[in-house]
Amino acid sequence: MSGRKPIRWHIAVFLAPAVLVYTAIMIVPLFGTLNLSLFNQTPERTKEFVGLANFGTLFGDPRWSDAFWNALGNNAWFFVVHMLVQNPIGILLAALLSSPRLRMAAFYRTAIFIPTILSFVIVGFVWKLILSPIWGIAPGMLDVVGLKSLFAPWLGKEDYALTTLALVSVWQFVGIPMMLIYAALLNIPDEVLEAAEMDGITGTSQFWKIKLPLILPSIGIISILTFVGNFNAFDLIYVAQGALAGPDFSTDILGTFLYRTFFGFQLQLGDPHMGATIATAMFGIILVGVCIYLFGIQTRLRRYQF
Amino acid sequence: MAQARTSTGRSIAAHAVLITYTLIALFPVFVILINSFKSRKAIFAEPLALPTRETFDLIGYTTVLKQGDFFGYFQNSMIVTVASLFFVLLFGAMAAFALSEYRFRGNLLTGLYLALGIMIPIRLGTVAILELMVASGLVNTLMALILVYTAQGLPLAVFILSEFMKQVSDDLKNAGRIDGLSEYTIFFRLVLPLVRPAMATVAVFTMIPIWNDLWFPLILAPAEAVKTITLGSQVFIGQFVTNWNAVLAALSLAILPVLVLYLIFSRQLIRGITAGAVK
Is B144 contained in some domain? Predict the structure, then answer.
């Protein structure tokens, strides 16, 4: 090889469009938002550098911090419900679907994935109608099994609304962990499973002892995708409960809080700088979560190569 | 014998669980669809009954089609989704090819830079994106949405596609080079056709969030002429909260196109997701 290679222009041509669009629309605005959070609007409508004062207001001023901690707590609960309900159900369904010689597997796969392709608008309204005490589908169905006394207008009660919405979101997205785990289970080589069968490990114990350890990395990826998705959620709450995230802010999560702050609602004026501050806080939360996963969990997961 | 009996028992149990969950998944959609064809009285009297000759009524659909420009919304959604998908797949595949094929300084760094977007949601940049679109006069245009969705879809596309492109045989590409093909021809003629299953996967994962997004249409393009179907049905349903026929019909109209597309492509989709996993 000669000492100096010619510049390979085609590499630049291949990379340029993606890097340019991504940088201009995603990275620059992201830093723009971080930057905006360091400024404030003066009464003369000019920008004024205030350093970290906006964060001081967000975490310290009770008018802001109460709403922020409320939204963060609700968001954490939203995530916990997904981790405890969505992912185990997804893994169970995938494990059942991947069992060999299961009939109608294609039908089940197709049907269970249907909610995932629907938009939040549809999902939000459909469940609002079904749970509505006016229409009476939910109370009617509970009546059939003799549990009518259990019915309550769940979306209208402060104690239940958030959990109900989290379960609706679980209903919608269970297809994603199901599909990813399903693909991971199909990836396990037959020889491994045959060896297990020779040793007398079959059925449920085969799942716990052989398959589960092998799909742990996929479960890790699903967990982090769930985390990012949940702390970025907005649409379902907005559609079902509006920007005010009622009743009495009990379903307010960071996404709706950001929307209300940035654009204003009813009597409150929109405030781009506080909006940017909340977005920056969300950025920090997601970054911390992702780092914990990447450095604390992912490096400890054992990977197997076949 | 005992072995056979337990395996039958187990398969019955598996079917029972799967059928139960399938019912849970489909029931809400089913209820909305059947009730959209019923008269107002029947919706409340017998919500779970199929429409009969007496209760059949299309009043909801006529109201919806008279009031909202649903075909316009649908067209906007199609334009935005197809255009974004095209750019994501083209730019994503090009970048993935560069990253997986060539060794150059900054390769790893560029890969990490592009992968950052998988973890950090683009919504957090909304405040500045809106300022950018206002400054460039793109507010209330479909172009604004296409740009945002292209940027949003690229990181995952590059990530998945470069994994798959690493599997394309080097011998094949080198044979092409010996025959005097340019790097561009190798990419478009040899590599792209071979990663088609991966492209299908990326297409689905990119398309669903774009089609269903409410956030960016609400903020960047809320005007009547550029409303997407998701935003359009949200606004429309909000106006007709008390007109149950119209709400149910609007929901059904929003569900049906996606449902039909999904049922047509579901086989392709499953194959894409489990690509490489099928033995």
Answer: yes
Size of interface A-B (CB pairs under 8 A): 250
Residue A268 φ then ψ, to 5°: -85, 135
What residue in A sits closest to B252 (Cα-Cα)? A122
The answer to whether the Cβ–Cβ distance between A286 and B120 falls below 8 Å is yes
Distance from CA of A169 to the nearest CA of B (A): 12
Whose structure tokens read 């916990």? A80
Q: Do B25 and A25 touch (CB under 8 A)?
A: no
Instruction: Output phi, psi for B56, to 5 deg.
Output: -65, 130
DSSP run (H or E) holding A48: strand A47-49
pLDDT tens by residue, B57-73: 888 888 888 877 778 88
User: How many other C-beta atoms are found inside a 10 Å radius of the C-beta of residue B134?
Assistant: 12
Model pTM score: 0.83
Give the domain CATH number at A146: 1.10.3720.10
Within-domain flag for B95: yes
Bigger pLDDT: A49 vs A140: A49
Separation of alpha carbons A298 and A220, rounded Å: 7
Enumerate the H helices of B120-243 as residue ranges: 126-135, 142-165, 170-178, 183-185, 192-194, 196-212, 215-220, 229-239
B residues 165-224 lying closer than 8 A (beta carbon) to A: 182-184, 187, 208, 211-215, 219
In single-letter form, the type of residue at position B26 comes to L
Q: Which of A199, A2, A179 is nearest to A98 (CA)?
A: A179
Distance separating alpha carbons of residues B124 and B216, to the nearest angstrom: 12
Residue A20 has pLDDT above 80, yes or no: yes
Shortest CA distance from B116: residue in chain A: A27
Is A62 exposed, middle or buried, given 0-12, 13-18 or 19+ CB atoms closer than 10 A? exposed
B272, part of any domain: no
A294 is a domain residue: yes
Of residues B242, B245, B234, B239, the one with CA closest to residue B35:
B245
Residue B174 phi/psi, 5-degree rounding, is -70, -35
- A26 contacts B151? CB cut-off 8 A: yes
- Cβ neighbours of A125 in B, within 8 Å: 237, 247, 251
Q: What is the pLDDT of residues A149-200, one digit of tens each?
A: 777 778 888 888 999 999 999 999 998 888 888 888 887 888 888 888 888 8
Compute CA distances A162 → A70, A168, A174, A243, A249, whole Å: 12, 10, 18, 14, 10
Helix, strand or coil for residue A246?
coil
Domain assignment of residue A54, yes or no? no
B76-101 tens-digit pLDDT: 998 999 999 999 999 999 999 999 88
A49 falls within a domain:
no
